[in-house]
Design a protein that fits this description.
With 123 residues, the chain is mainly alpha-helical. The chain is built from seven helices and two strands. α2 packs across α3, α2 packs across α4 and α3 packs across α4. The protein is elongated.
């Protein structure tokens, strides 16, 4: 039986929870194991659907384990955030304006970090 709470939670929230479980595990997890790790009353089919969507987006990779698959993240959390930022940037034809507005809205600390990175002070 599917928990009705599954249907009310935003997909992004569920994806984030699944990714957090995968990062914490440090090893490939099956949908059933992710479900156990989340402990949030989610149906296994819901977890499997989220993992399939993440795989289709290229965020996780999967490897055959028995009759099913085990999933693991392709990138760490900062890498995934950077990927999302690139995806958003690619959606707009006027990249220069998007970047200018992004930089204009940075707080002073983030602006300083960005300046250091652009000057070659890689992290």
């Amino acid at each position: 039986m599917t928990d009705t709470r599954d249907e009310r939670r935003p997909a992004g929230e569920l994806e984030a929870a699944v990714m957090a479980a995968l990062w914490a595990a440090g090893a490939p997890l099956t949908p059933g194991r992710v479900q156990t790790e989340l402990g949030a009353g989610l149906a296994r089919t819901t977890v499997a659907t989220i993992l399939t969507r993440l795989h289709e987006k290229g965020v996780v990779r999967r490897e055959r384990q028995g009759r099913g698959f085990a999933y693991l993240p392709v990138q760490d959390a900062p890498g995934l955030t950077a990927r999302r930022m690139h995806t958003e940037l690619d959606r707009d034809a006027d990249r220069e304006t998007v970047l200018a507005r992004f930089v204009a809205q940075l707080n002073p600390g983030d602006e300083q970090v960005l300046r250091q990175l652009l000057d070659g002070d890689e992290r």
